[in-house]
Amino acid sequence: MPRSSHECRAPWRTVLSATGGLLTLLTLTVVLSMLNLGPFALPAAITIAATKSLVVAVIFMDLRREPATVRLAAGAGLLWIALLLSGTLADVLTR
Amino acid sequence: MSSVHVAHQFDDAAQQRHAVSLGMWLFLATEVLVFSVLFTAYTVARRNAPASFAEAGGHLYKWIGVANAVVLLLSSGAMAMGVETPPDRSRAKSSWLLVTVLLGLIFLVLKGAEYTLDIHEGLLPGVSFSSTRFTDPRHAAFFLIFYWCMTGLHALHVAIGICVVAVMALLLRFGPEPEARANAVHATGLYWHFVDIVWLFLLPLLYLNP
Questions:
Q1: How many residue contacts between A and B have a Cβ separation below 8 Å?
Q2: Do B36 and A61 count as a contact with CB atoms less than 8 A apart?
Q3: What is the pLDDT along chain A (95 residues), one digit of tens a residue?
Q4: Contact at 8 Å (CB) between B94 and B184?
Q5: How far away is chain A from the Cα of B152, in angstroms, using its nearest Cα?
Q6: pLDDT for residue B104
């Protein structure tokens, strides 16, 4: 349904909480990089980076309140990365 | 209260804002295309020479990368506050955008200092490269080329973002009808947050877990 521009904005408390959460996740990324996690180090770091990106997209970029067409456009970018990475790695990993 | 100017091709303000969001997200999807090619190429190259990539990545200034991540996250917070501020408080809105610009400039200064240190330490293949520092100079150079291309393209985006946010801040403060610029500020914010997201992935891939 159409909404006014005022309704689309996240409250400033939410913005502050999100910023604090993002800085906490960044600290976690740095701490984990100092531990010897072996083959799990990069997947763990990328998972945290994806979580941070989700917070930025959903709260800062207001994606949670956008209509389906806008979410579809945002998803198109993710779909492209997924296709490119999976297609390329399917070739490289099976040689 | 302020009223948003609705262009003649839109039924109402909500439809106009929807069009702004949709257009900007579609543009950002094309930006994802650009960066995802580099990320995919990096993934394949890293898989072929993991030890060399790890060794070369160990020479980067990790803490400058982390500091820049903090700066960009804070700038995203400031940008979000600017978007959140009601349109009738255009001076406050402009101030948050100027904070964003300041943090963006700090990012570029830190990045410039890091690049200078990199060049002095022979980490720029083809120009200033100390091959004796690496056990596998060929793949180390490969990693460093990715480092310069990915961070360079990102820095270019930050520089463009700073210009756009600065112009928006000035228009809000000195331009006519600042209340009518809420959608433009929203679109500018989307671009800035996207630039922040790219760095969130560059940090672990290049600096923390190369």
A1: 140
A2: no
A3: 344 444 445 578 999 999 999 999 999 999 999 998 888 999 999 999 999 999 999 999 999 989 999 999 999 889 989 999 999 999 998 98
A4: no
A5: 20
A6: 98
Q: What is the ipTM, given to two decimal places?
A: 0.92
The answer to whether the CB atoms of B77 and A19 lie below 8 A apart is yes
Token pair belonging to A38: 């072996």
Among B66, B83, B209, whose Cβ lies nearest the Cβ of A45?
Answer: B209
**CA–CA separation, B3 and B176 (whole Å):** 14
- Tell me if the pTM is above 0.90: yes
Would you call A81 and B36 a contact, using CB atoms and an 8 Å cutoff?
Answer: yes
User: Greater confidence, B5 or B169?
Assistant: B169
Q: What are B85-90's contacts with CB under 8 Å, separation 24+?
A: B86/A6, B87/A5, B87/B2, B87/B4, B87/B178, B87/B179, B87/B180, B87/B181, B87/B182, B88/B1, B88/B2, B88/B179, B90/B172, B90/B173, B90/B178, B90/B179, B90/B181
d(C-alpha A78, C-alpha A84), whole Å: 10
CB of A16 within 8 Å of any CB in chain B? yes
Q: What are phi and psi of B60, to 5 degrees?
A: -75, 160
DSSP state of B206: I
Residue carrying the six token digits 């200034």: B61
Show which of residues 40-69 on chain A sit within 8 Å of chain B, judged by CB atoms. 41-42, 45-46, 48-49, 52-53, 56-57, 59-62, 66-67, 69
Residue B50 scores a pLDDT above 60: yes
